[in-house]
Write a structure and sequence with these properties.
Blueprint: E1 2-5, H1 9-18, E2 24-30, E3 33-39, E4 45-52, E5 58-60, E6 65-70, H2 71-78, E7 86-92, E8 95-101, E9 105-111, E10 129-134, H3 135-148, E11 151-157, E12 160-166, E13 171-176, E14 181-184, E15 187-192, H4 193-199, E16 208-213, E17 219-224, E18 229-234
Antiparallel strand pairs: 1-5, 1-7, 2-3, 2-6, 3-4, 4-18, 7-8, 8-9, 10-14, 10-16, 11-12, 11-15, 12-13, 16-17, 17-18
């Protein structure tokens, strides 16, 4: 197995984002490319990442490989990437060899690990609301919510999308109409800002964010480009009665 990325910065950025949610992952490599499916330890959030074969300048693989890696260790190595670096990944027995080539050739070898827990299937979700909006506007709305509360609500109508948060004393609301693309029914669902604050780091990857949700329903955030697919699924916060 040997993979080569001529522009590895986006891969490094995505591994850094994912590492905020999970400590270790199984990286699957096939002729179709590289993908990661992982769920956080609290079973609240799922990460879906695909880097297709077209993103690699070299992709040599005899059979599908599953690489168990510590994201802290992988992230630390990928931070050594500079502008103009070329990244090569290969598997040698129980190690992942990482070569960073720029002015000099640097070689790292990371021990592969057994990732605990069973891999859960991707849920089949049927969303009734889909919003496409500026990544910058979405980032700012979530950051504004974090000032006043620890959770926020997404509210959709046929011609309006609202993000709002209410704390014990303070509140915030941001309404979007003409500046977003809305395909939605009336729906409202509440989500943890602790998780959203980590997920919105994906906004730096693309100009547009796609938001999918329903009535007290899981949220799916999509940060896709022509080169990558990155999505997060987040369980809703549902009010419970004592």
């Amino acid at each position: 197995m040997q993979l080569k990325l001529e522009n590895p910065k986006i891969f490094s950025d995505i591994i850094s984002i994912i590492s905020d949610l999970v400590l270790e992952v199984r990286i699957k490599v096939s002729n179709e490319g590289l993908n990661i499916t992982a769920i956080d330890p609290a079973n609240v959030a799922m990460i879906l990442f695909k880097l297709p074969s077209s993103a690699f300048s070299q992709l040599e693989i005899e059979k599908e490989e599953v690489l168990g890696v510590s994201l802290e260790n992988l992230k630390a190595v990928l931070r050594r990437i500079k502008s103009g670096s070329v990244l090569t990944l290969s598997k040698h027995e129980n190690e992942l060899k990482i070569i960073i080539q720029d002015k000099i050739r640097r070689e790292f070898n990371l021990a592969l690990i057994d990732v605990e827990g069973e891999e859960k299937p991707i849920p089949n979700l049927d969303f009734i609301s889909k919003i496409e909006m500026s990544s910058v506007d979405f980032l700012e709305a979530i950051e504004d919510c974090s000032v006043v509360a620890d959770s926020c609500s997404f509210i959709s109508e046929a011609d309006k999308f609202t993000i709002q948060a209410k704390g014990s004393l303070n509140s915030f609301k941001s309404e979007f109409t003409d500046e977003v693309n809305i395909s939605a029914e009336e729906a409202s669902s509440r989500y943890s800002l602790e998780y959203l604050s980590k997920m919105i780091k994906g906004t730096k990857l693309t100009d547009k964010t796609v938001i999918n949700f329903g009535k007290d329903y899981p949220l799916k955030l999509e940060f896709n480009t022509s080169l990558i697919e990155l999505a997060f699924i987040l369980a809703p916060r549902v009010e419970t009665e004592d």
